[in-house]
Specification:
single chain; 527 residues; Aminopeptidase; 8-stranded mixed β-sheet; globular
Length: 527
Amino acid sequence: MKSLLKNLFIPAAIVIISILGCGENQDQQKEETTEEAKQSESINLNEFTSMQMKGVEQVSVEVDLDGAVQRLSKAVTFPTISNQDREDFDTKAFTDYHKFLEKAYPNVHKTLKKEVLGDPRPYSLLYTWEGKDPSLEPALFYAHQDVVPVPDDSRDQWKQDPFSGAVVDGYIWGRGVLDDKNQIHAILEAAEMKIKEGWQPSRTIYFVFGQDEEVGGAEGAKVIADVLEERGIERFAYVMDESAPLTPGIFPGIQENTALIGIAQKGFISLELSINGVGGHSSMPPEESNIGIIAKAITKLEAAQFPYRIHPAVRSQYRYMGPELPEEQQPLYAAVAFGKDGEMTDMEKKFIEVMSGNEVTRAMLHTTMAVTIFNAGIKDNVLPPSASAVVNFRPMPGDTPEVIIDHVKKAIDDDRITVKDISASTPATNIAEVGNAAYNMLEKTIRQIWGNDLIVSPFFVVGGSDSKHFQARDFAPDVYTITAIQLENTEEFKGFHGVNERILVEEYGKSIGFFYQIFDNLEELKK
């Protein structure tokens, strides 16, 4: 997963408590409290009730866990790494992994149509499981083959070799076992089981396993989304991708086990700011150097932040999470949940004020910008003839590449600097509907496997995954993202892109059961 998940899932609850008791002085605090009290009275808290599904009967799915664990363990040994330098690509790792999948899941490869796609490197996998009723809208399950690199200076911190796939102390260890090969293999294990039982879906089901999610998905997921769109698919009934695993305490203030379902993602664009001029000797410098000009532009840009606003996905998140938090906080959550776009109450302004003071929660409120690369200079006594910087933006809906480029040019106000889009930019996605048949089917499946003693809530994904290439299109208005595996605690997030990535053997069995069950539950969805 591209973003650091241990930071991604620290929603505003971490700072909400301070809203209810902060103030520069007592008089100001009294005025704010009085105003908030008035607004609280205007909110009907009787309507701010729990949105949690009740009374779902659990199911138990019998899985060949020993065999499944061996197959996932072997999968980890293929170093399908995505490096930022796309020429540094291990083709053998991917082709060997594909051959292994064919041997590991023979019934899947006999029954489903397999295509190997991607541009300029074709290593992404598209599987088509033909349904019995072609009139039904298809479903799509997404996961990615690639993993992030393991830095050499971190290898001695691993308790098991990162590409060993070791099964030790009740865990499967290794790079990609959590992000995201567990999802690939849980899907294929469940499909293999279903095919052995003679089962065929009513609607066509697609599996998409990308090759470059960790670097944006332009070679894999985007190409496959283009292909499916060109083939005339009008609408998917259900699309699911990875994001947050089930984790107790993932939402501060709630200790219960929590399943967060991503319903929207921010976009992605990287701009290069560059200048080309005359170099020379450092003993005779100009009044402004190329480095100084770019540095001044970056300073201006960082001072011109995009405005804050409350995204509809954030409102949905607090509509579901708010009623589960302490009663004294609920007026504030209700104000956010029931607020209207384009209007801003004083309570919502206070919410934004506090959230914007935290680097994690701030990202939920506006299009962010981050200076990530600076290139200039070749020698300490030579004036560089050119200088450049790369700024990465994560756009909110409405902030298109054109809007962002215009914002940058106005902020820096310097015609000497060229601004260029150097990324496979993607806009912010649609917002998946919450509470519809597809969302409810997903929540039901989660509860069938992991029980009713957990909180299920939508949330706004400030990072991104490959499904953004689908969700930004008309044929996939509703994309739901969740990594269908249980973590013991938030400490396990350190394995995402870090050291000692691992999952519990027992929980992997439940992941397989989840996909087995969701294939059945898809039958309940209407056309």
